């Protein structure tokens, strides 16, 4: 994708509401939606980005560690979440990448970097070199978003993100419409995590229109497994609510588990631990991807 792109002010993902006790223990913090600023200052005409997206990007909340506790560098994590419009039932997918960096407050206050500009620590950057790097990042994001969709069975899209000597081009194509529908999610993942017998037991619960709650510490495996179970029902279509990831830190999120209709909902492993005053209904089947267990509580 060639050509120049003109972008608005730098994208900012500035932070969260971090809370820590005086004893140095880690508490569950609430993501602050005010600190999420999209790349474009205006929403798409067909969809406005809701402020609750902050909870889905940090489903287990934010942890602030006191001086007495130190942790090593944590690995990055990528997972999928969905946003469903109440009126139209239209489902939109989001992809979140979380990564961690150690920040020295003295260094942050004194030095401007690309990272400090993107996170909003230095919104009024004066360095032309840093602004050029930020603009280049935003340009590539816009090019990815502006890439045309290939015609099924006829055309393909070859997208060069980096020099071909460093990274091969990305190839996008869609099969002919007469073929079976595509499964965008790894169908093998639930089979690997649960085994064939347990996986069939979960599918049986879904087909019998039971309420199914799936939990895991791995948010990516959790969301992919929920969507894979739905895809396995083909050619049948699941007509009840599906929530691949229900945030722990969202207020009163546990009330959704009291719905009278069947559902498939994925929650982090910490969800039920933090909802201490909540009793899971006896008609809900709990699937633990980490322990390979299925049952009712």
UniProtKB/TrEMBL annotation:
Domain of life the protein comes from: Eukaryota
InterPro entries per record: cDENN_dom, DENN_C, MADD, Tripartite_DENN, uDENN_dom
GO cellular component entries: cytosol
Family matches, as SMART domains: DENN, uDENN
Gene Ontology process terms (BP): regulation of apoptotic process; regulation of Rab protein signal transduction
GO molecular function per UniProt: guanyl-nucleotide exchange factor activity
UDENN domain: residues covered: 9-297
PANTHER family: MAP KINASE-ACTIVATING DEATH DOMAIN PROTEIN (PTHR13008:SF7), MAP-KINASE ACTIVATING DEATH DOMAIN PROTEIN MADD /DENN/AEX-3 C.ELEGANS (PTHR13008)
Protein name as catalogued: UDENN domain-containing protein
Organism from which the protein derives: Macrostomum lignano
């Amino acid at each position: 994708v060639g050509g120049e792109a003109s972008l608005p002010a730098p994208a900012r993902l500035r932070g969260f509401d971090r809370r820590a006790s005086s004893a140095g223990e880690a508490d569950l913090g609430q993501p602050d939606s005010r600190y999420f600023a999209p790349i474009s200052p205006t929403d798409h005409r067909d969809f406005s980005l809701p402020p609750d997206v902050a909870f889905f990007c940090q489903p287990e909340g934010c942890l602030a560690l006191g001086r007495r506790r130190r942790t090593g560098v944590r690995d990055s994590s990528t997972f999928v979440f969905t946003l469903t419009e109440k009126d139209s039932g239209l489902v939109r997918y989001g992809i979140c990448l979380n990564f961690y960096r150690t920040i020295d407050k003295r260094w942050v206050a004194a030095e401007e970097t690309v990272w400090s500009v993107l996170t909003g620590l230095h919104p009024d950057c004066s360095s032309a070199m840093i602004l050029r790097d930020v603009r280049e990042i935003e340009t590539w994001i816009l090019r990815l978003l502006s890439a045309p969709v290939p015609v099924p069975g006829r055309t393909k899209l070859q997208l060069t993100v980096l020099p071909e000597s460093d990274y091969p081009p990305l190839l996008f194509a869609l099969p002919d419409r007469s073929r079976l529908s595509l499964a965008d999610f790894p169908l093998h993942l639930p089979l690997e995590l649960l085994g064939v017998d347990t996986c069939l037991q979960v599918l049986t619960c879904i087909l019998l229109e039971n309420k199914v709650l799936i939990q895991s510490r791995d948010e990516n495996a959790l969301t992919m497994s929920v969507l894979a179970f739905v895809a396995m029902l083909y050619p049948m279509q699941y007509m009840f609510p599906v929530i691949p990831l229900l945030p722990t830190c969202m207020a009163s999120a546990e009330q959704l588990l009291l719905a009278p209709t069947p559902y498939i909902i994925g929650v982090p492993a910490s969800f039920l631990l933090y909802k201490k005053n909540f009793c899971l209904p006896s008609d809900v089947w709990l699937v633990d991807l980490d322990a390979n267990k299925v049952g009712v509580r």
